[in-house]
Amino acid sequence: MMTEVVNAKELQKQDPVFGQLSFDDHEQIVFCNDKDTGLKAIIGIHNTVLGPALGGTRMWQYTSEWEALNDVLRLSRGMTYKSAITGLNLGGGKAVIIGDARTQKTPELMKRFGEFVHSLNGKYITAEDVGMETSDMDLVRTVTPYVTGISEEKGGAGNPSPITAYGVFMGMKAAAKHAFGSDVLEDRTVYVQGIGNVGEALVEHLSNEGARVFIADINQDRLAEVRDKYSVEIYGGNNLYGEEMDIYAPCALGATVNDITIDQLKAKVIAGAANNQLAEEQKHGKLLQEKGIVYAPDFLINAGGIINVYAELEDYGKKEIIRKTENIYNTTLEILKHADSNDITTHQAAFNIAQSRIDARKNEK
Ligand code: NAD
Q1: Of 65, 152, 144, 71, whose CA–CA distance to 110 is shortest?
Q2: Domains in the chain, start-ordered, CATH in brackets?
Q3: 30 Cβ partners below 8 Å, 6+ apart?
Q4: Model pTM score
Q5: Smallest CA separation from ligand 1 atom 9, residue
Q6: pLDDT value at position 5?
Q7: Pocket of ligand 1, candidates 58, 218, 308, 309: which has the most ligand atoms within 8 Å of its Cβ, to mutate?
Q8: Could you tell me which residues are beta bridge partners of residue 234?
Q9: Residue 354: how many CA atoms within 13 Å on its side-chain side?
Q10: Which residue ranges in the chain fall short of pLDDT 70?
């Protein structure tokens, strides 16, 4: 179980695919290239024991192809464990398109990407991720049925972000219960880093409950917009990790929990939406445990989005989506207790349960 953040130079020293630090028994990696549309994409299929590999497509201006490959490997692996811990019959996959979503994304490029997805015959099912919109999934749907997260007008479950935020809120409450003895977040100080689609919806839940919310983002317009809508304060400093707080909610990028930040962190709980929050799972999970910081595993509490898109495949409605998402509270609480009683990290506790579900299904086959 090894994923680490490594820089592009270090990556180049390794073997291109099987020797990558992030390569973790992935079943298949597909490189997609189309000169006419400028499409350069990588689809990572980590594991299909529980079902087809489902995971979003991210479009990002990677600094190198190595960085893109590393990202897709980390993200697709994460999807395997996210679906397994949530009890969904899905495997783990993810796709990345190399390029700037604002300037290089065209309908032709999205359709060509859809054709590559289609060529995998349903082994990989795509969805939306950073740089993608519901309308892009609608375009992909014109060339393949192997896509979720399409708009409600077209019969899909729509934008998954509000459900993701609700699941994160449930996971945060469970972590608060474990750390403070109460899941009431009123008067708790919470720092939300990244107030995009998920972050803003989380801020709404928190401010409705009366938490003292500080928001941070690199986008100044967004900060003002969110501050004007809810009862929250903009964080004015430049290093929030060292601030006095009860809860740190990473909702922007991965790997923000690392050697430097753990040393500074004063939070008692970490619970947020970002994928791959621990720069190194084993090492940083252990450091948090030693420091007595309760970490709600990201792949467990940010599963609302996948629950939402899974509804399109299994044909269940909003009521079931909410029920499954609310259950994140119970699962989180159980995993935090299990970690304590077995003296293992919370990340490891969640990982073990997910892995045992995969192993049991494999043995049935
Ligand atoms: P988004 O792109 O809408 O929002 C991200 C926000 O983070 C933006 O406002 C951006 O300006 C801000 N940001 C970027 N770098 C930052 C930095 N260094 N410091 C502070 N803010 C920064 O994305 P989203 O859909 O809200 O997703 C947020 C995170 O949650 C991502 O890591 C995503 O992979 C993860 N996630 C999202 C979903 C979902 O349903 N959308 C599901 C699971 C996981």
Answers
A1: 144
A2: 27-76+91-154 (3.40.50.10860), 161-357 (3.40.50.720)
A3: 42, 43, 45, 116, 120, 124
A4: 0.92
A5: 196
A6: 53
A7: 218
A8: 215
A9: 28
A10: 1-14, 21
| pLDDT at residue 147, as a whole number | 96
Angle of helix 161-180 relative to helix 318-342, nearest 10 degrees, comes to: 30
- The vertex-6 CA angle with 300 and 45, nearest 5°, equals 50
Query: How many other CB atoms are there within 10 angstroms of residue 261's CB atom?
Result: 19
* Residue listed under structure tokens 């899941």: 183
Enumerate residues 6+ apart whose C-beta is below 8 A from 216: 191, 192, 193, 194, 195, 223, 234, 235, 240
Given a contact cutoff of 8 angstroms between Cβ atoms, the answer to whether 170 and 328 are in contact is: yes
| Protein residue with least CA distance to atom 18, ligand 1 | 218
Fill in the DSSP letter of residue 149: -
- Ligand 1 pocket mutation pick from 217, 222, 223 by most atoms within 8 angstroms of CB: 217
Q: Which atom of ligand 1 has the smallest separation from the CA of 196? A: 4
Gap between the Cα atoms of 235 and 215, Å rounded: 6
Is any atom of ligand 1 closer than 6 Å to the C-beta of 239?
A: no
Report the nearest atom of ligand 1 relative to the CA of 222. 9
Amino acid 3: pLDDT: 42
